[in-house]
Specification:
The chain is of the alpha/beta class. The protein has one domain: Vaccinia Virus protein VP39 (Rossmann fold). It has 8 helices and 11 strands. Strand 8 and strand 9 form a beta hairpin. The longest helix is centred in the N-terminal third of the chain and has 13 residues. The radius of gyration is 17 Å and the shape is globular.
Length: 242
């Protein structure tokens, strides 16, 4: 069923969702707020944009052009409805395309790339008993981490930045793949549900042809033991107006 929802932490910013598809997650909100947008970042693209939550949030942080690329036509239609509803058609463009095709047609055109990709490999014991739309959002069916980094390398200008959120248990593999495609890891932040939990998510900033040197940042802890939001998480949700 289609519905119009608020985006957490953002006043007067709405998004269309459908319960039959994969709805935007907290991960996307964290990623959209984690990235640094430099003055030089004139062209921004969000890969695996889904229903467009990351471009919508980024529109509150920059006046520059933002693109979202999504392979699922139904999600693209939802994203476009949200863009139009929020009056952002002149700033945000949602493109229905396979990232692997899009990257070949947009060599070295972007200053900043973001992605909240499918997290899980497809293995013999993978649980795939769900709709195809939800499957490809969660599992590396249409694109894997190697394909993704290859595409990012193609579309980024030299010294352009790539921001990724992914599973912490795949960190070693991800760092190796980033370096393989000349996307030098520069910053890393672990995300924890609370101070007593293990990290399940990690945020990574990398730079195309960047110098070596990785900074491990202070972790992001989302909730206090009593379940309340931490001050760090509250600040991350605060709307930053352009």
């Amino acid at each position: 069923m289609e519905r119009l929802d608020d985006i957490l932490g953002y006043k007067n910013l709405k998004i269309y969702q459908n319960s039959n598809f994969f709805s935007f997650s907290l991960d996307s909100i964290i990623l959209a707020n984690y990235c640094d947008i430099r003055l030089r970042d004139k062209k921004i693209v969000d890969f695996c944009t889904g229903n467009g939550v990351i471009p919508l949030i980024l529109s509150r942080r920059t006046n520059n052009k933002i693109y979202g690329v999504e392979i699922q036509k139904k999600l693209v239609d939802l994203a476009n409805k949200s863009v139009e509803y929020n009056g952002l058609s002149n700033q945000i463009e949602i493109i229905n395309d396979d990232i692997k095709v899009f990257s070949k047609d947009n060599i070295s055109k972007f200053d900043l790339v973001l992605c909240n990709p499918p997290y899980f490999k497809v293995e013999k014991d993978s649980s795939l008993n769900e709709s195809y739309e939800k499957m490809i959002a969660r599992h590396e069916i249409e694109i894997n981490i190697y394909d993704l980094c290859d595409c990012v390398k193609k579309v980024l200008k030299d010294n352009g930045k790539f921001y990724l959120i992914h599973r912490s248990d795949r960190l070693i593999e991800i760092l190796q793949v980033l370096k393989k495609y000349n996307l030098e890891p520069k910053k890393l932040m672990f995300v924890y549900e609370n101070i007593n939990s293990e990290s399940t998510l990690v945020l990574i900033e990398s730079q195309k042809l960047g110098k070596t040197g990785l900074k491990i940042q202070k972790p992001l802890i989302l909730h206090e033991i009593n379940g309340e939001l931490t001050e760090e998480y509250k600040r991350l949700q605060e709307e930053v107006r352009k």
